[in-house]
Amino acid sequence: MGHVYVFQTPEKGGYDGALHFDVNSIKVFDPVGVEVVVKIWPRVKRLGRAKWSLDPKRFAAFERELTSVETPTF
User: Fold this and answer.
1) What does the pLDDT read at residue 50?
2) Is 74 part of any domain?
3) Would you list the DSSP string of the chain?
4) In this structure, is the dihedral angle defined by the CA atoms of residues 21, 31, 64 and 59, taken in order, positive or negative?
5) Average pLDDT by stretches of 10, the chain with 74 residues
6) CB distance 28 to 69 below 8 Å
7) Residue 25 belongs to what domain range?
8) Max alpha carbon distance in the chain (Å)?
9) What is the pLDDT of residue 65?
10) Residue 32 counted as domain residue
């Protein structure tokens, strides 16, 4: 899981914040289309938004739809 940090003043380059996450939580999988996302979260109509608030209780169902899941090594 990640944590969002909002900067008090923008950093060089115009960055207003950062997302810090555990590298061990990263998974690589085949692309997922909107049809898979809508199957799990019906209120999602398109994938154009950068950040949706999705019900985390449905995440396990979403993971079951993923294919070719790999954990990269860093």
Assistant:
1) 65
2) no
3) -EEEEEEEEEETTTEEEEEEE-GGG--B-S---HHHHHHHSTT---S--S-----GGGHHHHHHH--S-B----
4) positive
5) 82 85 90 92 80 89 96 87
6) yes
7) 2-65
8) 41
9) 96
10) yes
Beta-bridge partner residues of 11: 15
Task: Please tell me the predicted confidence (pLDDT) of residue 29.
Answer: 96
Residue 25 inside a domain? The answer is: yes
Q: Are 70 and 27 in contact (CB under 8 A)?
A: yes
Domains identified in the chain, total number: 1
Count CB neighbours of 52 within 10 A: 10
- In one-letter notation, the amino acid at residue 51 is K
Distance of CA 68 to the CA centre of its chain: 17
Residue 70 lies in a domain: no
- 8 Å CB contact between 19 and 2: yes
